[in-house]
Amino acid sequence: MRKMDEMEMSISLKSVRWAWFYTVMFLFIWVMFDWIQNGNRGLSFFLLITQNLVLLGTQSFLKWKMSKNEK
To answer: On the CB side of 42, how many CA atoms lie within 13 Å of its CA?
Structure first.
């Protein structure tokens, strides 16, 4: 397996971003629908919140790790 070049990396990153955005929007609509219909948030709400917490946590950790390596 060969390494991706810059263009392939850019395409892959954009694809992942669009897939993440689609998932977040789908979950948000699902949460709103459940909340309006049933008055509860359920598993979809938990998934939406934890997915974004994992995203923010890993971004913060990787930024901290990269800044630590530069010093």
So the answer is: 15
